[in-house]
Specification:
Blueprint lengths: L1 E4 H8 L5 E3 H8 L3 H10 L15 E3 H15 L4 H25 L2 E4 L5 E8 L2 E11 L2 E8 H4 L1
Antiparallel strand pairs: 1-4, 2-3, 4-5, 5-6, 6-7
Helix pairs in contact: 4-5
């Protein structure tokens, strides 16, 4: 079996990898840089480099999505505070999925038959077992394998 490391996926989709500046964020969302700075001051959006005073603001894709969604809600009559709260609530499932995927993902293996087995790490109730996921047709199927057999 060929192996893929945890780093493979993390490098592609790491939280902070894809960033843009405030000018690009303004162009993408239609919200002025001044308004975006106000949103930041209120704590509704947070630049990736907020701990680096004097540096140009850069924003992660999460903040891009949040700012765009807030802008859309403001256009439909929401207040800024209500729009931010609504977006935070709507983003919770996506944040949960992100953590499930990235906290559990250990890599992948390609089985002898070409099947991709996604390694989700130790199976919590039975830590001597490793949990794998694979696609069978369009359905996700889980499989437990003894860790000693994998070594």
């Amino acid at each position: 079996m060929a192996n893929g490391t945890r780093r493979d996926l993390r490098e592609l989709f790491h939280k902070g990898q894809l960033t843009i500046g405030i000018s690009e964020l303004s162009r993408m969302t239609g919200v002025s840089p001044r308004q975006l700075r106000y949103w930041q001051k209120k704590g509704y959006i947070i630049p990736k480099n907020e701990d680096e005073p004097g540096q140009a603001r850069i924003y992660t894709m999460k903040m891009v999505i949040k700012a765009a969604a807030m802008s859309n809600l403001l256009q439909t009559g929401y207040t800024l505070k209500a729009a931010a709260a609504q977006v935070d609530e709507r983003m919770r499932p996506a944040q949960t999925m992100y953590h499930v995927i990235f906290d559990r993902y250990q890599g992948y293996q390609v089985a002898d038959d070409g099947q991709i087995l996604v390694d989700l790490g130790p199976f919590d109730p039975q830590p001597e077992q490793e949990l794998f996921a694979k696609l069978v047709g369009d359905k996700v199927v889980f499989d437990l394998k003894n860790r000693r057999e994998l070594e």
